[in-house]
Amino acid sequence: MFPITFAILASSLNPLLQAPVTAPQVRQMVERSLPFLEKEGLAWETTKCVSCHHGPLMMWSGYEAKKHGFAVNDKSLELVRARALTAYNSHPKMKPTSRDVLTELSVNVMYLTFGMGASGEPDAETTKFFDKAAAHLIDQQKDDGSWRVIITKKTPKGETSFLMPPLIDNDDVTTLWALLTLNYREPTGISKEALAKSKEKGLKFLNDNPPSDTLQSLMLRILLAKRLGKTDEVQTLVKQLLAMQKDDGGWSQTSKLRSDAMGTGQALLALTTAGFTAKDPAVTKAWTYLLKTQKPNGSWFVVSRAYEPPEFCSYMATGWVTLALVRTLPDTAEGTALPVP
């Protein structure tokens, strides 16, 4: 009697021992998160600024969800995309927002590349943006091959510098984002020699410096290795990622933090990029964690690890999770093979 009672109790306490999450349940999670992303993203992008924390992930997750047969509001996505194109293409230094002017490097050009790129074949204005973004990145590369963003702030005790992760993270993370952007498509107006030299310097910086203790760094390394066709490196990095999955099925942003949707969403995206599907236990464990932690409004709450209100990280996490969940589902008849990342 006691062993049976204990088994029942253990099952009720451990969600991973309960009935596995199904693909229809995952679709329902996405169907709940997409309206949240649209509502909050549209409100921010149309009343405040062309942001790096709302617009890119609203577009990226929305466009890819559409490719998998989910209903999205095309008008909202196109409105956000058009505002971003107007703001950045019309600015001589590609720094139209208050966040951009805080540092020499306009970090949003990297995020917007993937957000707008997910819409499909680029039109003339989008192509112009891609080319300007690549030129800006090459111009802002440091002598050691890295791309770096450090925000300084004046305080009563003097000037202090800080990061704003995951948007503005360690140097290796920023460098990985820049290299992924430069490898996204072949830009025009930049010589092949200059482009190759920039990529070579960036890769050397990554090889010469240890990775930071962030899941985002590991995710981006997997995405970049996959993009560059480094199969052995992808497999090695994926083993590291799998070893970091926690008992609750999630991943944390750093080794000192608990599981959250930001880490779990980025980890899932890396796994799907490496070829993992819903048949893999790591994916289904993550599904269970995410189903358990999704809020009634469709979002996932994440505590900020930067000088930002929690809603910024929560919005970004919801975007990453939605993007990753979409990729773990089998393609519909309308679905298409997705590019890396």
Short characterization:
The protein has 341 residues and is mainly alpha-helical.
CATH architecture: Alpha/alpha barrel
> Quick check: average pLDDT?
89
Shape: globular
How far is it from the N-terminal to the C-terminal residue, by CA?
52 Å
Number of helices: 13
- Give helix % range: 55-70%
- Strands across the major sheet, in which order? 1-2
Task: Report the β-strand fraction as a percent range.
Answer: under 5%
Question: What's the number of domains?
Answer: 1
Structural class: mainly alpha
**SSE sequence, one letter per element:** HHHHHHEEHHHHEEHHH
Under CATH at level 1, the class stands as: Mainly Alpha
Tell me the radius of gyration.
20 Å
CATH topology category name: Glycosyltransferase
Q: What is the number of E strands?
A: 4
